[in-house]
Amino acid sequence: MEKAKVLYDFDGEEGNGELTVREGDVVTVIRQNVGDGWWEAETSTGQKGLVPEAWMEIMRGPPAIPSGPPSAPPPTQTYEDDDWDDDDDDDDDWDDSEKSSVHQPANHHQPGKNVKLRQKSSKPSQNGESGINGAGNFGLHSANRDRKGSEPTGKGTVKLGFANRFSVFAKAGGEDYLLGSQEGKSKSVSGTILYTIVDSEDGPVWGSPREPFHVDIKNPKKETKLKGIKSFICYQVTPSNTGIQVSRRYKHFDWLYARLCSKFVTIVVPPLPDKQVTGRYEDSFIEKRMDQLSRWLERMTAHPVVSQCDVFLHFLTCTDGKEWKKGKRDAEKDDFLGAAFFQVLGVPQTVLDITVVERQHENFHKFVKSMEASMGQITHVIHEHGKRHIGPFKREYQKMGRAFKEVATSFELDTRPRSQQLTDAIKFTGKTYDEIGDLFAAQPRNDNYILEDFLREYTGMLSCFPDMISFHKHTISTVKECQKQREEQKMEFDEAEQIKTRADVVSYGMMAEINHFQRQRVYDYKEIMKLYLGEQIKFYEAITEKLRAAMTQYDNVNV
Length: 559
Known about the structure:
- The chain is α+β, with helices and mostly antiparallel strands.
- About 45% of the residues lie in helices and about 10% in strands.
- The protein has 11 helices and 11 strands.
- The strands form 3 sheets. Strands 4-3-2-1-5 form a 5-stranded antiparallel β-sheet, with no helix packed on it. The protein has a 3-stranded mixed β-sheet with strand order 7-6-11. Strands 8-9-10 form a 3-stranded antiparallel β-sheet.
- The longest helix has about 60 residues, at about 495-550.
- The chain is elongated.
- The model is unreliable at about 65-70, about 70-85 and about 85-165 (pLDDT under 50).
């Protein structure tokens, strides 16, 4: 293994697997292909970790005299495969059996820069605009290129400890937005309001969409490519506002899901139904998958913001391969992803009280935790209840049916007319209990399974909130820290007020989404409980009718 000499001091963070090294140290290079601009190295004391490549010099000849710290390695910019008809080999993995490009809402936000809050009088950053904590860089962070003791004294850098650089807040660009460092960098026209929030009797709510609509999914078809080597299911998607049918595979839904998660940091984007490797072409699976995708699309269509965003409309309306690729690239290069979305969000002019906002934030956090616990419990209970329907309940009723039939069989030894009438009635009773057992086995698909799918859907929605709550919590903490620094005259009044104004936009967005969720929750639970109880009533009425019919058989027995 090669030796390398350290050219500059580097203060690594042990928790992130980085080494702390000093100028002149000699380290052993273990790997040079860790990520863009990073090596794995070992010190003379046996400590192993990551070091920035630009800080190292392989010891092959006379050491070079550095003239100053080099620039950080630029981030690798990656774009997703932009195929339409999947004729390229790379896309063969982009199928129902592949590993999803996005697994949990917790990791879906577009990476942003981890900028530290600075006063006007602080020195310019030597880090430049680029970092290596973006996609394709293994989550690494730009190295510290400031030498020890190089910071000015007095009114120097004001560092706010409001976000871990690997937190959702930092990755989604929360710091950039609050500090105003995103403004003016977008290719799009800055300051254009694309979405609005208005006041209502329930508090801030999203502005009404321009044209509400719904979406139908039907006619799933198995299609092939590469002369039948590759097969997949296509669903026909038709929005009501256009009436134009488009064909979409699961991978297209997966791409849309990833883009929506990257774009909206305080909007609930429920996870898609899980992928399945085996049984993907069975009719029962295809029907269930189509129903799940339909409900997912309907929920997105019902959202006032998601239903109007360009990437969603592109998914629903594009029928041309070239236009699909162009729209796909545009979505992946969107200037307003993550926290940058708040730049195009118009909110009421009322200044928010940070104390009230924080109290509402904590109350909703408690609500989410309580609801998560209750969802887990009732989902388990409903699932187990459905299993008992098709197992123990059915067996018990059919066991009773067999027992009655055995009684009737024993009575057949008496051939007198009166006895035969009784025997026939008891036989009918046994048959009735058999049929009741079949009713129990068939019932879950009418109510239990529907309710369980609904509960799992809401469990998925709740899984989006921890990141949203964390993002908003960091926003509140930033505002409080700025207020403190302003009171201590460490920050100018105007700068603190600008940060507070931007934080209000985030808070308005969070409150609007909470109100949308709560309003939708009340409607959804009302409808699902009416459906569930209605099916339960039908079920027990059917049992009652069968028992009543069995009882009337005994009216024919002459004593």
